[in-house]
Amino acid sequence: MKHSIIPPPLPPHTTLPLRLPSASELPSREEKAVFVRAMFDRIAPRYDLLNRCLSFRLDQYWRRVTIRTAAVSAHDTVVDLACGTGDLSELAAQTGARVVGIDFSYNMLIGARRRNIPATFVHSDALSTPLPTTWASVVLSGFALRNFVSIPAVIGEAARLLKPGGRLAFLEVDTPANPFLRWGHQLYFTRLVPFLGALLSDKHAYAYLPESVSYLPEDAELLRLIEDAGFQQVTKQRLSGGVAQLLTAVRKKGEP
Ligand SMILES: C[S@@+](CC[C@H](N)C(=O)[O-])C[C@H]1O[C@@H](n2cnc3c(N)ncnc32)[C@H](O)[C@@H]1O
């Protein structure tokens, strides 16, 4: 069954900022949220194409690893936070799970709806979803952590949504630990990606992509944030030599 609860389009973002100060300049939460939403509204039509090209289709492989690692099955109720055009939602739905995708970019959700994915897509802030407490058995999120205005807030929302024993899986970009890989990756990520992004989609958005990594806390801090929110078995898995990371955890039993 396919539903959608999407309100009418947002007003045109003609006066919105095209660039965001780097993380060190501490933009306000409102400034970042407005920028991020406007940016994804702009790049939505070519988002999937750019993802596949710039990652050599590894993005979909990483998403499949996410679904497999979180052991999503037909018994699950899944929330995909910041679902974008629905890539993770689609893979989760293919297992037979009941899936709800949440995103605040109207145009990204339009992209998701066009794909006829058997899931419900809801236009909402992922930091405060309209879904009931302990409603989900799995919460997923792909490549969105660094885009949220508050990482603790989204982890808190995931903790609220999950039943005790429920599984959390955050897929995100990462920086390889190996110095040689790191050098090549930096070159690709900070030079080639913005260049190709500008050529094929949006200059400002694809310049922000490498910059946005600076919004991610250090590994230990990120794992601690997840643990402190009421999770156990908190694990980080490096994917493809550390170009991406998968953070997984299990909601503790007996936590509020
Ligand atoms: C890089 S895209 C990832 C989309 C998708 N998860 C994927 O795997 O391709 C990041 C998404 O996060 C969404 N986003 C960022 N902050 C959000 C928030 N607070 N609430 C809802 N969506 C948000 C953006 O609109 C965008 O669709």
Give keywords.
256 residues, alpha/beta, Rossmann fold, eight-stranded mixed beta sheet, binds S-adenosylmethionine
Measure the end-to-end span: 32 Å
Q: Got a strand count? A: 8
Helix content: 40-55%
> For this structure, what is the CATH homologous superfamily?
Vaccinia Virus protein VP39
SS-based class: alpha/beta
**What is the CATH architecture term?**
3-Layer(aba) Sandwich
- The side-by-side strand order for the widest beta sheet comes to 1-4-3-2-5-6-8-7
Main sheet summary: 8 strands, mixed
Kindly describe this structure:
The protein is built from nine helices and eight strands. The protein has 256 residues and is of the alpha/beta class. It has a single domain (32-251), classed as Rossmann fold. An eight-stranded mixed β-sheet has the order 1-4-3-2-5-6-8-7, with helices on both faces. α6 (151-161) links the parallel β5 and β6. It binds S-adenosylmethionine (SAM). S-adenosylmethionine binds next to α1, α4 and β3.
Give a brief rundown of this model.
With 256 residues, the chain is α/β, with parallel strands linked by helices. It has helices at 29-43, 47-54, 58-69, 87-93, 106-114, 151-161, 179-200, 203-212, 219-228, and strands at 3-5, 77-81, 98-103, 120-123, 136-142, 162-173, 231-239, 244-251.
List the helices and strands and how they pair.
Blueprint lengths: L2 E3 L23 H15 L3 H8 L3 H12 L7 E5 L5 H7 L4 E6 L2 H9 L5 E4 L12 E7 L8 H11 E12 L5 H22 L2 H10 L6 H10 L2 E9 L4 E8 L5
Parallel strand pairs: 1-4, 2-3, 2-5, 3-4, 5-6
Antiparallel strand pairs: 6-8, 7-8
Bound molecules: S-adenosylmethionine.
S-adenosylmethionine binds next to helix 1, helix 4 and strand 3.
